[in-house]
Each structure stands twice: as C-alpha cells, then as structure tokens.
Amino acid sequence: MQKKIKATIIFVLQFLLILSITCNANAKSIDCVSIFEEIIKASDFLPEVTSRATLTIDLYDIYVNDDSIFFKVYDSDTEKNKNRGMLATLGWLKYNYKRKSMENITYDELNPVKVIYNKALEIKFNQCLDFYKINIKDLATSE
Predict the structure, then answer these.
(1) Would you tell me the crossing angle of helices 2-42 and 119-131 to the nearest 10 degrees?
(2) pLDDT of 8-45, one tens digit each?
(3) What's the whole-model pTM score?
C-alpha cells in the first residue's frame, strides 16, 4: 500500500514539475511582450489615440519574418468594446529587430510612417529576450 502511495506521489510531483516548466516558459514570452507593449504606449504610434493605457498586443496576432516582427495593436478597453463583442483593432506595427527601427504600417505597408519610441525600453525588451533565451522569432505563435 505504501509503495502505491509513494509511486503516486512521485508521479504527481513529476507531472507538476513539467507543468511548472511549461507555464513558466509561456510567462517568459508574455513578460517580454508586455515590455514591448510599454514601448508602444510610450511611442508616437497613432498619436490620435489619447487613451494609451489600454493599448495591447495579442500573442496570436504576431507575425515574424527574417528581419521584422509585426504586431497587431488593440484597444483593450472593455467598456468601449462591450458593444462590439471583440477587441477594436487600432493598427499594425512593424519592428525591424535587425535595424532597431519601428514603423506604423496601419495605413500603407509600402509607405510606412516611422515611429519614434523609447530606446531604453527597447534595450529592456532585448535584455528580457536574452535573459530568458528567447529567440524573437519564437514570439510568433505557430498555427
């Protein structure tokens, strides 16, 4: 009887350890993306949007190519969105992680508008990626 209990406890502990590692890996990406959200909030992206606190990125709307990462930016204000039944899309950002530049491609991807942003937050974002050993390309979710 005691052997069954010990075997069950060992199995449960192994399962919890694996679950903890998996959850922690997801939290790391979310931590870095939240820093990028701060970059967007502090930038001049869509200056007509005065309520910057509710700008958010959905991890399922990230696309990465060889030199850039594309973010779909939403307004997460639940009061504004409750009648729509979904988050309001505000625009698209292209962040060239090789050249360290950001562009607003909301209106025209071929003629983007340069976005001015806080370089100190960009350094913090890259340090987060380095600390957690996350390749920026891994931020995009695979279908």
Answers:
(1) 160
(2) 555 444 444 343 443 344 456 778 888 988 999 999 99
(3) 0.72
Task: Give the residue among 141, 66, 61 at the shortest CA–CA distance from 98.
Answer: 66
Both structure tokens of 95:
């962040």
Query: Cα separation of 50 and 58, whole Å?
Result: 20
CB 74 within 8 A of CB 89: yes
